[in-house]
Automatic annotation (TrEMBL):
Family in the record: Belongs to the PhoU family.
Organism: Amedibacillus dolichus
Coiled coil: 37-64
PANTHER family membership: PHOSPHATE-SPECIFIC TRANSPORT SYSTEM ACCESSORY PROTEIN PHOU
Occurrences of domain PhoU (ranges): 16-102, 119-203
Record's subcellular location: Cytoplasm
Gene3D superfamilies: Phosphate transport system protein phou homolog 2, domain 2
Assembly behavior: Homodimer.
A Pfam family it matches: PhoU
UniProt entry keywords in alphabetical sequence: Coiled coil, Cytoplasm, Phosphate transport, Transport
Main location: cytoplasm
Protein's recorded name: Phosphate-specific transport system accessory protein PhoU
Function according to Swiss-Prot or TrEMBL: Plays a role in the regulation of phosphate uptake.
Amino acid sequence: MIRIDGKLSQMEQTLVKMGNRVVSMHECVCEVLAEPNKERELEIIQADDRINHMEEEINDLAIESLALLAPVASDLRKVIGTIKIATELERIGDYAKNIAKFLIKQDHLSDMVADYAISMEKDLITMLERAMQCMVDQDEEAAFAIPESDSVINQQMKDIRAKLLADDGESREDALKELFEISAMLRNIERAGDHIKNICEHVLYMMKGQHYDFG
């Protein structure tokens, strides 16, 4: 029991560090959205490698736990849940990298788009921080509540699309091109929110042994 508890604790600690690094990546995204900086954008892209390595480290710990320590049902759920949460974090890190790649190629981003993107990112960061704390605390109530925050991000996505289409300062062709490019960039934030909802599903599975689908 001591050995499996120690391994589970090591996995959780690594997972928390991974979550903190992913949060830092998205905080950097906020910075470069407010003040474009090619070097900082490149740092976000490079930071993704460390996230990938941490996912591999968690998977290795999980394999060792499953192969050598024969966990009981509740511990087995924790091992499986940790693997799944690590995968979600890896994807959320990828979305920060994708935004940085987009920004590196841009000479200018309108203030309106940047403001919406920053607002969405801040909501995303808060949501992710709450989800990771929920995992540590094994907080069932929070796991059910956090997914509701995703609707705010989705609504902002709809609002910015509507404003871009309503912009009279551009031709229809230019407006549609900008809408496509900006939507592709902002969709990274929207999808990251979906993965945070998945984290809450995994936390509940670890706690209750039941599967939930927050859509």
